[in-house]
Amino acid sequence: MIGNVFAAIQFDGETLEALESYRDHLLELAPRTRTTRPDNWHITLAFLGKLTEGESERAVQVLEGFSGAPFEVRIGGFGTFGRGVSKTLWVGVDKSPALADCQRRLQRAYEEEGFLLPPRAFSPHITMCYRWSGKSAVSLDELRAGMPLITARVSQLVLLRTEQNDQRINHYAPLASATLR
User: Which of 8, 28, 123, 153 has the smallest CB count inside 10 Å?
Assistant: First the structure.
């Protein structure tokens, strides 16, 4: 088995810079926050879980065979999942018809190839921090204040695998990509 595998949207340099302004704003208000690394920021479209090498090869084929037109996503605002100290702090992504269609078609392509995907509702977001403390003196309203919406063009999808380095820090290694035309 290899690490968790998932299909996602990653961001170009301009979008990463804009997202870094969100991270910087967060760190100004809550300086002790341990944020996720910019090279790990993504929007998950289909979570496949732990795969064998053979399954991983099939997952690559599905992604490389996927087609669709480029589209834009709007990014903005902060929110959380979870409870207590196990909350995940995220930056929201507008679930536009184009994004929802891309996610639905990609998920269907994986299911038609026999992959069992978790039955979760699609809730597009970019994880900014794990273990966000609900005890923080900073409210979500304060985090949201004054932060501009980001518009990002999506022209490529990627298949990523979770790996850990020697310090047990996760990073995502690309397995394949598909260009949207």
Answer: 28
